[in-house]
């Protein structure tokens, strides 16, 4: 028998479930006391979420990669401009997908197209780019201070509206 008098609330961690449905393990309850799908009308519904990458009917198949425009901004302690330029040129040589790199002695910006299943995948790759290639390309020990990942349609809408980098921006490594 429970130590709770009729008409009073059960203490936290007690055996009565939310809504007075009975003890744990009773028919129609889940572990923790939440009612299953056959709950009585008017009871609260459990919240659910959509996992990253989930798609709805009519959308592209999950395995179809899409193009994402990535802008990665890094910043840190001053470094000699010649070393920064050489390192960015090495990164561009190692990874020809890089479109444009702009740099100064204490910050840089890298723009490129990434092919990925969804935004989450494109962002994950972008966030690893600088750190994974710091040693091989000789990049400065700067931290990532900005990241923008947009789909191809959004990129082209911005260009058409006069926002974003001009289409004639030369490909390569350039000072700010």
How would you sum up this structure, described in words?
It is a single chain. The protein has 176 residues and is α+β, with helices and mostly antiparallel strands. It is built from four helices and five strands. The chain has helices spanning 81-94, 119-132, 134-137, 152-160, and strands at residues 66-75, 98-103, 107-116, 143-151, 172-175. A five-stranded mixed beta sheet has the order 4-1-3-2-5. The longest helix has 14 residues, at 81-94. The N and C termini lie far apart (76 Å).
Secondary structure blueprint with pairings:
Blueprint: E1 66-75, H1 81-94, E2 98-103, E3 107-116, H2 119-132, H3 134-137, E4 143-151, H4 152-160, E5 172-175
Parallel strand pairs: 2-5
Antiparallel strand pairs: 1-3, 1-4, 2-3
Main attributes of the structure:
5-stranded mixed β-sheet; single chain; 5 strands; 22% strand; alpha+beta; 176 residues; globular
What is the element string, with H for helices and E for strands?
Answer: EHEEHHEHE
Total number of strands = 5
Shape summary: globular
Q: Round the Cα radius of gyration to an integer and report it.
A: 27 Å
Number of helices: 4
Low-confidence sequence ranges: 4-39
In brief, what are we looking at here?
The protein has about 180 residues and is an alpha+beta fold. Helices cover about 25% and strands about 20% of the residues.
């Amino acid at each position: 028998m429970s130590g709770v008098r009729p008409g009073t609330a059960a203490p936290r961690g007690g055996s009565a479930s939310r809504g007075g449905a009975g003890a744990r393990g009773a028919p129609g309850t889940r572990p923790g006391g939440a009612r299953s799908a056959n709950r009585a009308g008017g009871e609260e519904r459990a919240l659910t979420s959509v996992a990253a990458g989930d798609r709805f009917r009519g959308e592209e198949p999950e395995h179809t990669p899409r193009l994402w425009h990535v802008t990665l901004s890094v910043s840190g302690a001053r470094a000699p401009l010649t070393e920064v330029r050489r390192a960015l040129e090495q990164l561009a040589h190692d990874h020809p997908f890089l479109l444009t790199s702009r740099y100064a002695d204490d910050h840089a910006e890298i723009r490129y197209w990434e092919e990925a299943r969804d935004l989450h995948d494109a962002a994950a790759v972008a966030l690893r780019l600088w750190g994974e290639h710091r040693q091989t390309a000789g990049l400065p020990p700067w931290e990532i201070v900005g990241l923008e990942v947009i789909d191809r349609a959004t990129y082209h809408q911005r260009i058409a509206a006069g926002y974003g980098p001009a289409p004639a921006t030369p490909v390569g490594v350039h000072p700010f």
